[in-house]
Specification:
transmembrane helix, 1% strand, 32 helices, 56% helix
Length: 677
């Protein structure tokens, strides 16, 4: 037997020269079992990595059964067989080709305790998962251990953690027992989902344009049901090129807009042949929204939505950006569906209680005290889950964590306005839960008064963060029961004292920002006031020597000059006074709630007004000294003169809008980080 050239095999595999690798095997049959990388991968391992389906099939078909099984059972340094890798990359053809030769490969575990079917679910490879699931049904071992790794995580844990919610829905239907399973840390699938606020609409931050596209996007909220999918090894081919699909979809959409009730009547005979849905599925469908529009309006609305997207793309909004918003909406819908399934199928003990015993794959138990799902959801701001759990069992509001904090206290402590408003609307919660204290003696008002290092509110700057902090404290205080009395915690502090002590640093930082901003703006206001005063005392064209009245009185440009110069002088002086009043403020905590932001907002408004008025008065006065033949040519110069000021105002618009909204809104808006997919 010739000696195996490991280096040559490695080079053949890395360069994709699998024909040469096959020739090397013909010369030396032991070449397939040689470890050719530091990770102890064989040629077949690398072929699976590189997607060489035809090579793998040809090799497995060309060797005898004994050698084939030996090669398929070989593991690399991580304990992965070729079936593990095929499931991980989602190659259905390879999975079927390998698993059909020896179904025990599906039960094989790597050194992390992961089976191939677990890896397929972990990486969201739906087709590969369904293929292995179908082959697994033919195996004698029907234990759920095949879908659980050594740390107790099941495929349901993994798909929810990786946010493959479409696959998670199918797993719930295939393996309903996994709904109540917990890992070694004591976490159930519902608890993991509760820790993912960005997967729900209530905790996702979107701007106006994003929100508009999100609401106008029509996505399918039905998940394809596949109860028993087996791969038959046949390749799926398209009768036409792949890029024809978009055109076909577009023309189908056009056709669907013309379909009315009479056209649908022809399909009644076919509908009678369809088997009736179960009562449970019909009950779920009855819960959906009922629209008062004709059925064919849905297609028309969908067509208009596509046209709107087309126009947005023309005006510079990228198709990828629109697609990202659509994918986000799909994720939100599917996450809510998974949540509903988990809550409806979960047992009361695993759904509401905070005591869990984690079970490992080896049978060992490890007791942990983990927060109940409603507590995690309240802390993370998942309003949908809190509402669903309370609708299912209102007693869940009595759950507390290790620090004796209920869902209400956690929502207040972590600044979750959506959850707090939901709970505050329930009279029972307002009368009972708001009276409770944690193990440190802190009431709901104490927790609202406590400030931590992170800045939760959806506004920039320390000053406006301080404004929202005070508004949040005031909102919680006004929500307390009528006969609530202020109490001390175990450190002997009232809520007001705690607010002052914990917000000293933020108030100091906000005061510095306001001081610098007011100093800069007051300097500009003083300059504008000086120019406006000089301009207002100068009369274009001069006065009449006999009467003293302006010579140009009555002309439209003169009237514009007179009004604009007066407005510029008054508004600049007003702005200067407002900014000086901010500089002389004491910067008390309560001043940030209304007084200081109002002065800053009015000061910026009058400053912008004064600058614009000065420019208008300049243009109106300059208009008289321009010759008649140049008057039309000077208009572009006036526009160019106003551009720097317009740009400055445009840059300050976000701050201006934040201040305006802060004055209007009573309930603060929380900031949530966006995770792109």
């Amino acid at each position: 037997m010739a000696e195996i050239d490991v280096e040559s095999l490695f080079n053949y595999a890395m360069k994709g020269q699998f024909r040469e690798a096959l020739e090397a095997y013909n010369e030396n049959p032991g070449a397939l079992e040689a470890k050719i990388t530091k990770a102890e991968d064989t040629v077949l391992h690398l072929a699976v990595y590189l997607g060489q389906t035809r090579f793998v099939r040809k090799v497995l078909d060309g060797i005898n059964e004994e050698v084939c099984l030996n090669v398929l059972h070989m593991q690399n340094s991580k304990g992965n067989t070729t079936l593990h890798l095929a499931a991980e990359v989602g190659n259905v053809d390879m999975c079927y080709n390998m698993a059909k030769r020896d179904s025990t490969l599906i039960c094989g575990r790597n050194f992390e305790g992961e089976t191939p079917i677990f890896l397929a679910a972990l990486h969201g490879k739906r087709e590969a998962f369904l293929c292995l699931h179908g082959l697994k049904q033919n195996h004698e071992d029907e234990d759920d251990s095949l879908v659980r790794k050594s740390n107790g995580d099941t495929i349901l844990h993994s798909t929810i953690s990786s946010e493959y919610f479409g696959l998670a829905l199918q797993i719930i239907k295939m393996y309903p027992k996994l709904v109540n399973s917990v890992n070694e840390e004591g976490l159930s699938p519902l608890q993991i989902l509760a820790g993912k606020p960005n997967c729900f609409k209530s905790s996702t931050r979107m701007e106006l344009l994003q929100s508009t596209i999100y609401n106008c996007s029509i996505v399918d909220d039905e998940i394809e049901e596949t109860d028993d999918v087996r791969y038959n090894g046949e390749d799926k081919t398209h009768p036409c090129p792949m890029n024809y699909e978009t055109c076909t979809t577009f023309f189908s959409l056009l056709k669907s807009t013309t379909i009315g009730k009479h056209d649908k009547a022809a399909s009644n005979d076919e509908e009678e042949n369809v088997s009736q849905k179960s009562e449970e599925e019909q009950a779920k469908k009855s819960e959906k929204k009922l629209y008062s529009f004709p059925p064919n309006w849905g297609a028309a609305i969908r067509f208009l939505t596509h046209m709107m997207k087309f126009l947005l793309i023309i005006f510079g909004v990228g198709a990828n950006w629109i697609g990202k918003i659509q994918r986000k909406k799909v994720k939100h819908i599917q996450a809510k569906q998974v949540m509903n399934e988990l809550i409806e199928r979960a047992s009361s003990s695993s759904l509401y209680k905070s005591d869990y015993s984690g079970m490992s794959i080896h049978g060992g138990e490890k007791s942990r005290r983990m927060p109940a799902p409603i507590l995690i959801a309240a802390k993370m701001g998942v309003r949908e889950m809190v509402e669903k759990i309370l609708d299912t069992d209102p007693v869940a509001i009595e759950e507390v964590d290790s620090e004796n904090k209920s869902a209400v206290l956690l929502a207040i402590e972590n600044r979750q306005p959506h959850v707090f408003n939901l709970l505050n609307k329930r009279s029972l919660i307002r009368e009972t839960a708001l009276r409770k204290v944690d193990k440190y003696g802190n009431s709901a008002l104490h927790l609202a008064a406590t400030y931590r290092s992170h800045r939760p509110w959806r506004v920039p700057g320390a000053a406006m963060q301080m404004q929202w902090e005070y508004k949040w404290y005031k909102l919680v205080k006004d929500s307390m029961p009528p006969n609530f009395f202020e109490r001390y915690n175990k450190n002997g502090e009232t809520a007001k004292q705690l607010f002052i002590n914990t917000h000293q640093g933020l108030a100091k930082e906000g005061g510095k920002w306001l001081t610098k901003t007011s100093e800069s703006c007051s300097l500009v206001a003083a300059l504008v006031a000086t120019v406006a005063f000089t301009t207002s005392t100068a009369i274009p064209g001069g006065p009449d020597q006999n009467t003293g009245y302006p010579l140009l009185e009555g002309r439209p440009a003169f009237n514009i000059f007179a009004v604009a110069s007066l407005v510029a002088l008054c508004s600049s002086v007003t702005a200067l006074v407002l900014f000086l009043s901010i500089l002389t403020s004491r910067f008390q905590e309560k001043d940030f709630a209304l007084d200081l932001p109002r002065k800053l907002l009015l000061g910026l408004t009058t400053l912008f007004t004064s600058i614009a008025s000065v420019l208008v008065s300049f243009c109106a006065g300059h208009f008289f000294i321009v010759q008649d033949e140049l008057k039309f040519a000077v208009y572009p110069i006036y526009v160019a003169t106003c551009l720097p000021v317009s740009f400055f105002a445009l840059v300050q618009l976000p701050l201006y809008f934040d201040l305006s909204l802060a004055m209007i809104r009573k309930v603060p808006q929380r900031s949530y980080k966006m995770h792109s997919n």
